[in-house]
Write a structure and sequence with these properties.
Layout (H helix, E strand, L loop, with lengths): L1 E9 L5 E9 L2 E7 L1 H7 L9 E8 L7 E9 L5 E7 L2 H16 L6 E6 L4 E4 L10 H7 L8 E5 L7
Parallel strand pairs: 3-5, 6-7
Antiparallel strand pairs: 1-2, 2-3, 4-5, 6-9, 7-8
Length: about 160
């Protein structure tokens, strides 16, 4: 959700902790971020920031539930995969050198997956070919690939927990 409100408090040992309100399409929830986690994640706790909060819920009678924060992941840092589709192995081989050159110029942590349609082969490129899967890279790829043959897919957040 998006951070709608934030309050910083100090413990009796003068350590900062935060109480934030997260808002999404279904409502709001308060998140308690204890000092150790606040220190680790405070850079993500700006007003209107979009984040995923992983933690456990505490629910008491006649009070709204709260989430005790264990991990925060900003929307911008979700891992992605770049899927590149070629009709045949010949199509891939024809574009391979330009493709690898373009990929080398985009340094990042996102995986690249090559799919050959006619043989239904899929190949994940190694870590040395990981990219920053963003609009700039897509523009470069679309200079020699069709729009329907290149897409960025966000990985499932639940697999990161």
């Amino acid at each position: 959700g998006m951070i709608a409100a934030k309050t910083i408090k100090f413990t009796k040992y003068n350590q900062a902790m935060a109480f934030i309100t997260i808002e999404d399409l279904t409502g709001t929830v308060e998140v308690i971020i204890f000092p150790r986690d606040y220190e680790r994640y405070q850079r993500y706790l700006q007003d209107d920031a979009k984040i995923f909060v992983i933690g456990h819920a505490t629910v008491e009678d006649e009070q709204n539930g709260k989430i005790i924060c264990e991990k925060i992941i900003p929307f911008d840092e979700l891992p992605k995969q770049l899927w590149l589709r070629f009709d045949t192995m010949e199509d891939y081989k024809k574009n391979e050198s330009r493709l690898l050159e373009t990929i080398r110029e985009s340094d990042g942590g996102d995986e690249v997956i090559i799919y050959i349609a006619d043989t239904k082969q899929m190949k994940k490129l190694g870590r040395n070919y990981s990219v920053n899967a963003n609009n700039e890279l897509m523009e470069q790829l679309l200079e020699f690939l069709d729009k329907e043959n290149a897409k960025i897919v966000e990985k499932n957040i639940e697999k990161m927990c």
